[in-house]
């Protein structure tokens, strides 16, 4: 048995230990952060289905001072939705301890003490309202203006009379006959349709309290910190009075299934921190093979910076003769808010391509045309450390081997141009080389343990690009960069090409330009010939609207707070027109970017997949200094003559649109703070209206700071944030896991690259990924009925996913229109 912890609360020397019971919610880490910040408590997280904890509940809680039972999807009366929570309310006198229930936890507390839990006439998801409270207990000292965010479909009825009309519920402050042990502490009386809704209770004799609202939400008043402190003070008073102290075991007999901060826990990969990599052998074959391409002890970045007014990344790819090759282009498409465009080029015999498929868990990698290595993995979790290690091994700042001068001797710069030599790195360039490509939606599903629909595409598809070109549109500079030895000739060559393009852009009546427009016109005509006989299969209105209603039924039952429903449009293009075997993906891309410019445009042709995209949405970026940024978009209004900017603002500032956005902001705060901690996570922009080519959108910005010495300390890195945040919250809804399960059931198809993320991970430690939306995708292997498209006379198929967040306030008609608007932003541009 354990010994007794003799530390004294009153003396203030005690670090409280709190057990957090998570019902698979997507706001959990925000609550944990709030507890840690307000109480300086140590919080341990367990899931509701943890058998070990459930079977040893008394023993488990004896190690803690208090328990917090969190929110979650479902109904407190359904055993699988609450797991062992019910057992907590039944703890006997000897084992009882203070417990705070939040939302589902609150409902469960009330249900266990005689209340009814029923559906609200109108569910409240992401709704912020002023509460009525009588200033006592956990509300002591809290002002009248206290506002709280609600995410619930169900409500507690303390009168216990199901036949009572919802509108006749009344506000009262004494226990009811049906629930004599529950004191009501707060109500929401702002909603006419629902009538008064109970918002908080305290048990009359046991140390149990609960709140229906979410104290941790970004839109709940700051005073919720006071509420948490009040609860803790009450808990401490109770513990002291009882003389209860937690048991201290040398070794606990149970292990929590999931330690808090999964990112931190799992970010101790087998990878040596980059600081010492230069001298230690690679741990993965992938990283070792890739590193062997650079036949030097140290990796150097050779680079040149040139003025490059007016050149576009597409014209650069064309003059470099790369438009029909495998290539990755991250293109800010001249959009006002796009700063950089990045080109990643393939080098025969040097470029490594890496793919992973969720269906078979096989990792494939190889150097260009060379032999492909295959590796059977147990899970996608094994991929990330290999990628990170490969990046670290190419960090040009890690100089552990021979001296710089000797290793560059074969590649010395012309006199006066010392930027070719490694010592000076181009800090203004966000990408020095590394992995470029995408991670599919299904890959994201694997990370959260949701069964995906079988898909035929590579779910991870990256190339390690040694040769890269970065255009800084704000300063009109271009960086030409290579991580390969002896590559100066290539840099100089591209430099001359850039000079040529720049001067050509300045001479309007240049013959080469008119030659170019003739080529463009020809390309366009061929594209139109393909497209004129293409067949477009769009989602059927009745079936889509029916799916919206199915989503809303699950929102009303409490299984989700928001569901991002999507569907797919297929364009089947006949094989072979005028002797051409395939529609020209490059020409298609150029048309799309010119008609629907967006800051996260992308063209990618890699490992049998073609992507042409105009995404407006950043998923996640992280800088070399460790600053992370998410930019979720939620809330969309179509532009039209009638839709003035003022009207669009008014719509986007409505409670429906704000609720949609708020849920995703809270969800992303949870994703990010789960890795780096809530104290390092903040919201820098909350619901701003941004204007795009065909739509207005509501955008928020969530930021955070990775530990500065993360690499040395084995702390979390950008890739840890990335993998912990998949699939993107703006494409799932909340809570993420249950919502993805529901969507998979309703959508009945893999989403593929759509709803995934696309971008780069840099050898210097930065990264930037967009959400793959407003994008058309084609794969060479299109599934059983569609292999070798375009070759055996089968049509080639381009897919465009589109959808939108369904909330309880949505209408099926307007959701269908929203999906159509988004799809048309791509389709309309292609067929223009
Ligand atoms: C689902 C799509 O977009 C997502 C949904 C949005 C919304 O519901 O308003 C906005 C941007 C994206 O996060 C899409 O473009 O297909
Ligand atoms: N946020 C929550 O915990 C929600 C609880 C419950 N599923 C409801 O919808 O009412």
TrEMBL record:
Pfam families: Anth_synt_I_N, Chorismate_bind, GATase. GO terms for cellular component: cytoplasm. It catalyses: chorismate + L-glutamine = 4-amino-4-deoxychorismate + L-glutamate. Its EC number is 2.6.1.85. Pathway: Cofactor biosynthesis; tetrahydrofolate biosynthesis; 4-aminobenzoate from chorismate: step 1/2. It is an enzyme of class 2 (transferase). InterPro entries: ADC_synthase, Anth_synth_I-like, Anth_synth_I_N, Chorismate_C, Class_I_gatase-like, GATASE, PabB_fungal, TrpG/PapA_dom. The keyword Transmembrane helix does not apply. It comes from the Eukaryota. GO terms for molecular function: 4-amino-4-deoxychorismate synthase activity. Residues 541-822 form the Chorismate-utilising enzyme C-terminal domain. Residues 311-480 form the Anthranilate synthase component I N-terminal domain. Residues 20-227 form the Glutamine amidotransferase domain. GO terms for biological process: 4-aminobenzoate biosynthetic process; folic acid biosynthetic process; L-tryptophan biosynthetic process; tetrahydrofolate biosynthetic process. Keywords: Folate biosynthesis, Glutamine amidotransferase, Transferase. In the C-terminal section; belongs to the anthranilate synthase component I family. NCBIfam families: PabB-fungal. This is aminodeoxychorismate synthase.
